[in-house]
Design brief:
It is built from three helices and no strands. By secondary structure, the chain is mainly alpha-helical. The chain has one domain. The longest helix is centred in the middle third of the chain and has 43 residues.
Length: about 110
Amino acid sequence: MASRRTKSIGTKVTPEEYDRIHALAGEQPISEWVRAALLKAAADAPAADSMVLAELLALRTILLNLHFHLCSGTPVNAESMQRLIERADREKRQQAEARLAAAPRRDP
């Protein structure tokens, strides 16, 4: 048996915002469309956060390693650069998940 919806969320919108939401809802009741949009946004946010963080961490790994090589006078050739990129890509998701898990929960 499905659980009943007993909680409510409400918000005020401008007439322009209402018209936009109404147009997006189409034939569907606005409340159902808003509910679906809200739940989708809540579910998608962590995935997007993780993806963006993973890419930033990969870039950070590459940048810091390049900086270290340049400062220490170590030459950077195509082969070492490719290994660095592959390592950053291989580790980025795991690093992002670990950082997100360690971060305190935030309120929107």
